[in-house]
């Protein structure tokens, strides 16, 4: 299996770059829409927190995406990080 050379995109980065910025939403507004604390959202965006199934499902509902997209993106990112440690 070919190893990925660059760091894959964390789902929090996807959220900020593909949704928050284009829609002009602040972190406070997005946190409120998702029903989470702003600090939790910021930790997620800054790759300090992994997406949970609950958050993935909230993102699915809010943006009409598949919750599996968010989970698979996180899984890919986690595997890459793990492989960097070996």
Mean pLDDT: 94
Shape: globular
**What about the largest sheet?**
none
SS summary, helix count: 5
Structural class, judged by helices and strands? Answer: mainly alpha
What assembly state would you assign to the polypeptide chains in this entry? single chain
H/E series: HHHHH
> What percent of the residues sit in helical stretches (DSSP H or I)?
55-70%
Return residue spans where pLDDT drops below 50 for at least 5 consecutive residues. none
The count of β-strands is: 0
Could you describe the 3D structure shown?
The protein is mostly helical and 86 residues long. The protein contains 5 helices and no strands. The chain has helices at 11-23, 27-34, 38-45, 53-63, 67-84. Helix 1 packs across helix 3, helix 2 (27-34) crosses helix 3 (38-45) and helix 4 (53-63) packs across helix 5 (67-84). The chain starts with 10 loop residues before the first helix and ends with a helix.
Task: Characterize this entry briefly.
This protein has 86 residues and is mainly α. The chain is built from 5 helices and no strands.
């Amino acid at each position: 299996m070919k190893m990925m050379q660059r760091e894959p995109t964390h789902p929090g980065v996807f959220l900020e770059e593909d949704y928050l910025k284009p829609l002009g939403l602040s972190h406070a507004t997005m946190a409120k829409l998702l029903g989470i604390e702003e600090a939790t959202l910021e930790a997620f965006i800054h790759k300090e927190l992994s997406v949970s199934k609950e958050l993935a499902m909230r993102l699915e509902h809010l943006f009409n995406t598949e919750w599996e997209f968010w989970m698979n993106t996180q899984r890919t990112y986690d595997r890459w990080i793990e492989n960097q440690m070996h």
